[in-house]
């Protein structure tokens, strides 16, 4: 790998200040307010948070370093088709606001998976929370790995050192300060994330003399793509896969994921929660679109001298930090501000994950086991102490998993693959519970486990094709580099084009776009869940039909209440008809309550 510019002392100072501020927020909330003595304060901030910080936290909890590095690399390497996913965010927001959110708000539980116990039973709760547990740990590993790429490309610091530094800082402030520290730190870190993106776009616009020129260079380089409307599921990104796949991924993250649900419950009422969700949508879209454009900004510098072909970097995910060092290293502190933004993106997501993992582990596993073994409950103080310890332990586990993340390919695709494979079936499980009355516990568990196994197989099975990349060149590089790397250029393009996703020499299911994993998981879980539930109702005892209407989507709940009220009315009519057959003087068959009802009828 060729030498690159490295950070100076001013840059390290900026990064250190950012880390100290994040830790300081955690320390402040440890010793302020209720001192995090209760689980309600530790996990849901005693429902005292404002709408704006919660809205920002909803965005940055998942728009992490994966977004900053992965989305910019995506647009540089494959073009702008990925921008279409923003349509799915608009479609998904009202579904979450008026579908899933009212159910969870009425439940008022720390763990989202408590819903599944009330709707189906404890086995479903255990199964779903365990699957979520695995998902979030894997994702946390990818998120920790992403900033380490930035540091390796810009400082020479090994991935090992950066993973450990970020992991320990995050574990410390999120474990001692609870959800308040996490939410307030998210706001600070969101500002740094936006600053990092605008710095990149601003520098590029200044170098090529305008945003229009960035667009024109990208257009000449075939990076402007919005015309992929193929129905072929093996095409990596199309309007269909990005809107439908993006919608299912969005719903699985914002609708039924513990991290986001926990945040929406930190405000005082359902109206405030819905406002926070609606406010998060434009922030999410602005961050996503500007990050996409930053990929084109980076391309405007390297369009005729690709750094990957030059062997300056080993992964497209390193493009943004390399660009920063190539263009800003002469300005003390500015590269440090960018790296601080990358760090912040990772910290905000990891801290959210650690707090939620602690909540799920305590509420879904430790408390039920302790209750069953001793017949008693944890004291409030003991619960909070255990939660803090769990958050810190999960920080160490995330550090360990980060070293495995480099085996999953590009960080953007790796993150979305994890959410698709696990999030799709979980979305199906919750939708079966909230959207149908006929789903049974057996049907839900069997279908979810079957579909999870299937998706893990098609997502990680080998061998699988590499997606075709857009043309890159080194014709504008130094003459010596062209001669040294000309063979590499030819081989790299030929290899990728010959092993496109559409190459029929590969097993068909391995060629399906990763954007279809979430819709596949959702649909298959829902369909098989209903089918198996129907069979179980035929051969086994019927499930209790008198379920609480609050466990269903509001539109379904209204229908259930209306049906039940009609059933009561029909029973009253039947009773009145029977009573009128008897003589009014026959006191043995008279009922004062029925008389009143019959009078109204």
Describe the protein's architecture and organization.
- With 601 residues, this protein is mainly alpha-helical.
- It has 2 domains: 12-538, Up-down Bundle (Sodium/glucose cotransporter), CATH 1.20.1730; 556-600.
- 72% of the residues lie in helices and 0% in strands.
- Helix 4 crosses helix 14, helix 7 (122-154) packs across helix 15 and helix 8 packs across helix 9.
- The protein is globular.
CATH class bucket of the largest domain: Mainly Alpha
Total E-strand runs: 0
State the separation between the terminal residues, measured CA to CA: 86 Å
Average pLDDT reading: 81
Percent of residues in beta strands: under 5%
Number of domains: 2
Could you name the key traits of this structure?
601 residues, mainly alpha, Sodium/glucose cotransporter, globular
What would you say about this model in short?
The chain has 601 residues and is an all-alpha fold.
Q: Would you spell out the secondary-structure blueprint of this structure?
A:
Layout lengths: L8 H22 L8 H6 L6 H10 L4 H14 L6 H23 L6 H6 L2 H33 L4 H50 L2 H10 L18 H17 L2 H7 L5 H33 L16 H10 L5 H41 L5 H26 L5 H25 L5 H20 L18 H20 L18 H23 L14 H28 L10 H9 L1
């Amino acid at each position: 790998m060729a030498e690159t510019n490295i950070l100076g002392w001013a840059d390290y100072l900026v990064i250190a200040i950012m880390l100290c501020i994040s830790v300081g927020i955690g320390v402040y909330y440890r010793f302020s307010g209720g001192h995090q003595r209760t689980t309600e304060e530790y996990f849901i901030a005693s429902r005292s948070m404002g709408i704006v910080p919660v809205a920002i936290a909803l965005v940055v909890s998942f728009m992490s370093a994966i977004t900053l590095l992965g989305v910019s690399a995506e647009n540089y390497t494959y073009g702008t088709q990925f921008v279409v996913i923003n349509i799915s965010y608009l479609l998904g927001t009202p579904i979450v606001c008026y579908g899933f959110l009212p159910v969870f708000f009425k439940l008022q539980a720390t763990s989202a998976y408590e819903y599944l116990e009330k709707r189906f039973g404890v086995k479903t709760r255990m199964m779903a929370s365990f699957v979520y547990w695995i998902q979030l740990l894997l994702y946390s590993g990818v998120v920790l790995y992403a900033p380490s790429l930035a540091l390796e490309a810009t400082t020479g610091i090994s991935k090992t050192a950066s993973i450990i530094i970020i992991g320990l800082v995050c574990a410390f402030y999120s474990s001692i300060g609870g959800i308040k520290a996490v939410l307030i730190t998210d706001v600070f870190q969101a500002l740094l994330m936006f600053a990092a993106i605008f710095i990149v776009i601003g520098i590029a616009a200044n170098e090529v003399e305008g945003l229009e020129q960035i667009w024109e260079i990208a257009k000449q380089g075939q990076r402007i793509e919005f015309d992929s409307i193929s129905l072929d599921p093996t095409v990596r990104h199309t309007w269909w896969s990005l809107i439908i796949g993006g919608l299912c991924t969005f719903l699985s993250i914002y609708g039924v994921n513990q991290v986001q649900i926990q945040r929406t419950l930190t405000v005082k009422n359902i109206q405030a929660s819905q406002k926070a969700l609606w406010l998060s949508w434009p922030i999410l879209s602005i961050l996503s679109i500007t990050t996409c454009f930053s990929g084109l900004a980076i391309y405007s510098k390297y369009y005729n001298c690709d750094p990957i072909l030059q062997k300056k970097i080993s992964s497209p995910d390193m493009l943004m930090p390399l660009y920063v060092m190539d263009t800003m290293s002469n300005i003390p502190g500015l590269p440090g501000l960018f790296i601080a933004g990358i760090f912040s993106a990772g910290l905000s997501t990891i801290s959210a994950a650690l707090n939620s993992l602690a909540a799920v582990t305590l509420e879904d596993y430790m408390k039920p086991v302790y209750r069953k073994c001793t017949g008693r409950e944890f004291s409030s103080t003991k619960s909070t102490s255990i939660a803090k310890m769990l958050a810190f332990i999960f920080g160490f586990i995330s550090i360990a998993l980060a070293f495995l993340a480099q085996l999953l390919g590009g960080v953007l695709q790796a993150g979305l693959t994890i959410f698709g494979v696990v999030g799709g079936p979980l979305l199906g499980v919750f939708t079966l519970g909230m959207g149908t009355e006929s789903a049974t516990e057996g049907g839900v568990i069997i279908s979810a486990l079957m579909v999870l196994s299937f998706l893990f197989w098609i997502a990680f099975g080998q061998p699988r094709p590499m997606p075709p990349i857009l043309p890159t060149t080194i014709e504008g590089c130094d003459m010596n580099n062209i001669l040294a790397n000309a063979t590499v250029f030819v081989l790299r393009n030929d290899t990728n084009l010959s092993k496109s996703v559409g190459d029929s020499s590969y097993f068909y299911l391995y060629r399906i776009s990763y954007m279809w994993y979430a819709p596949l998981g959702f649909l298959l879980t829902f369909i098989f869940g209903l089918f198996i539930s129907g069979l179980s109702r035929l051969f086994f005892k019927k499930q209790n039909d008198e379920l609480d209407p609050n466990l269903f989507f509001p539109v379904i709940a209204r229908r259930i209440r209306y049906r039940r009220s009609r059933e009561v009315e029909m029973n009253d009519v039947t009773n009145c008809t029977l009573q009128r057959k008897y003589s009014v003087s026959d006191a043995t068959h008279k009922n004062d309550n029925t008389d009143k009802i019959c009078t109204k009828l």
